[in-house]
Amino acid sequence: MKHYYYTDEFLEHLAEPHNVGVLENPDGYAVERAPSAICGDTVRMMISVNGESIADIKYKVYGCAVVIAGCSMLSFMVKGKPIVEVEAISVDFLAEKLGGIPSKKEECLGVAIGALKSAIKKYRDGLP
Fold it and tell me: What is the pLDDT of residue 103?
């Protein structure tokens, strides 16, 4: 069922976000901000890697409903997955998993995905 623009799946991730928190000694860490200064969405993403898979993921988010639900769904989807699979996740794919979002809010999902991909890059570059 859709409520205005959002599905029950979306609303569940918004009401009870998965994996919120801080990882002690993460293997990769990044902060991503929305390109628009007006928006203000900010995501701090932390990952722990085992082999070439995401062993754990935590995040802190300051932003709108879409970035909160997006971070929750993204963290839920990638835990335990190979990094190469995670790097292939797109805004369209994440939006589909959430049951769709308004097109003007796609940038918000980009902040979540950008934070995760930046954390992976820092891990690969040997940076905390």
Answer: 85
